[in-house]
Amino acid sequence: MRKPMMAGNWKMNMTVAGALDLARQIYRLVGDTSVVEQLLCPPSVCLHPLKAVTDDMPFLLGAQNCHWQESGAFTGEISPPMLRGLADYVVLGHSERRQLFGETDETVNKKTHAVLAHQLNPIVCVGESLEQNERGETSSTITAQVRAALDGLNDEQVQSLVIAYEPIWAIGTGRAATAQTAGDICGLVRAILREMHGAAVAGATRVLYGGSAKPDNIGAIMEQSDIDGALIGGASLEAESYAEMVRITARVYSG
Ligand code: PEP
């Protein structure tokens, strides 16, 4: 059985003090549930202090991006070896990186290989724009993005990564995909995994939904058999709403 994941993408929010405070608040609210994997993805400067404080809390930590090279003249970048020991996961190909910082399918693929080579787990984001959605190009866009991101990976590598389906039109807009649509597209992602790597790998790899997920809709989203969790932006910045999403997910999985 795939363990559900609630991944909070804090984006460029929070100082170190604010990040520590938010993590402590979430811990007070949720406690030690082992049913749901709780992943916090703060700005990279917060990873080290958070790691120290959350070592005895049930959180995993994720970075929001990294470079594919190990070191070199890449001012402002962070490499996979730098994240070893600080992060468990690295979010790659988020639509904000694709739209605002020139991330392409090719760089996402290079980063995915680099992250895996350093024993970190990628969370690869894919998603169609509003225009692609309206032109009926959702399936072809998602298929192309998943295939490109996973190009050259072996079965074992694919099982250790997570794919997040995040329709761009749903991110930060308050307009989430319906649970049914989100479930269908996550099902499509799983079918692509099956085609590329076989049924066992497809059955073991987690697929998340992201895009205006919140306490009100997370229950229906998590009822979908092909959805294994959520990548959460806005609602992860408030301890109570994130905690509530963890609790609801735990209920869906325990009952
Ligand atoms: C995200 O940034 O990955 C995201 C899903 O944001 P939000 O939940 O705010 O739509």
UniProtKB/TrEMBL annotation:
<dbReference type="GO" id="GO:0006094">
    <property type="term" value="P:gluconeogenesis"/>
</dbReference>
<dbReference type="GO" id="GO:0019563">
    <property type="term" value="P:glycerol catabolic process"/>
</dbReference>
<feature type="active site" description="Electrophile">
    <location>
        <position position="94"/>
    </location>
</feature>
<comment type="function">
    <text>Involved in the gluconeogenesis. Catalyzes stereospecifically the conversion of dihydroxyacetone phosphate (DHAP) to D-glyceraldehyde-3-phosphate (G3P).</text>
</comment>
<feature type="binding site">
    <location>
        <position position="172"/>
    </location>
    <ligand>
        <name>substrate</name>
    </ligand>
</feature>
<feature type="binding site">
    <location>
        <position position="212"/>
    </location>
    <ligand>
        <name>substrate</name>
    </ligand>
</feature>
<dbReference type="Pfam" id="PF00121">
    <property type="entry name" value="TIM"/>
</dbReference>
<comment type="pathway">
    <text>Carbohydrate degradation; glycolysis; D-glyceraldehyde 3-phosphate from glycerone phosphate: step 1/1.</text>
</comment>
<keyword id="KW-0312">Gluconeogenesis</keyword>
<dbReference type="GO" id="GO:0005829">
    <property type="term" value="C:cytosol"/>
</dbReference>
<comment type="subunit">
    <text>Homodimer.</text>
</comment>
<dbReference type="InterPro" id="IPR000652">
    <property type="entry name" value="Triosephosphate_isomerase"/>
</dbReference>
<feature type="active site" description="Proton acceptor">
    <location>
        <position position="166"/>
    </location>
</feature>
<dbReference type="InterPro" id="IPR013785">
    <property type="entry name" value="Aldolase_TIM"/>
</dbReference>
<dbReference type="GO" id="GO:0004807">
    <property type="term" value="F:triose-phosphate isomerase activity"/>
</dbReference>
<protein>
    <recommendedName>
        <fullName>Triosephosphate isomerase</fullName>
        <ecNumber>5.3.1.1</ecNumber>
    </recommendedName>
</protein>
<dbReference type="InterPro" id="IPR020861">
    <property type="entry name" value="Triosephosphate_isomerase_AS"/>
</dbReference>
<keyword id="KW-0324">Glycolysis</keyword>
<feature type="binding site">
    <location>
        <begin position="233"/>
        <end position="234"/>
    </location>
    <ligand>
        <name>substrate</name>
    </ligand>
</feature>
<keyword id="KW-0413">Isomerase</keyword>
<dbReference type="GO" id="GO:0006096">
    <property type="term" value="P:glycolytic process"/>
</dbReference>
<dbReference type="InterPro" id="IPR022896">
    <property type="entry name" value="TrioseP_Isoase_bac/euk"/>
</dbReference>
<feature type="binding site">
    <location>
        <begin position="9"/>
        <end position="11"/>
    </location>
    <ligand>
        <name>substrate</name>
    </ligand>
</feature>
<comment type="pathway">
    <text>Carbohydrate biosynthesis; gluconeogenesis.</text>
</comment>
<comment type="similarity">
    <text>Belongs to the triosephosphate isomerase family.</text>
</comment>
<keyword id="KW-0963">Cytoplasm</keyword>
<dbReference type="GO" id="GO:0046166">
    <property type="term" value="P:glyceraldehyde-3-phosphate biosynthetic process"/>
</dbReference>
<dbReference type="InterPro" id="IPR035990">
    <property type="entry name" value="TIM_sf"/>
</dbReference>
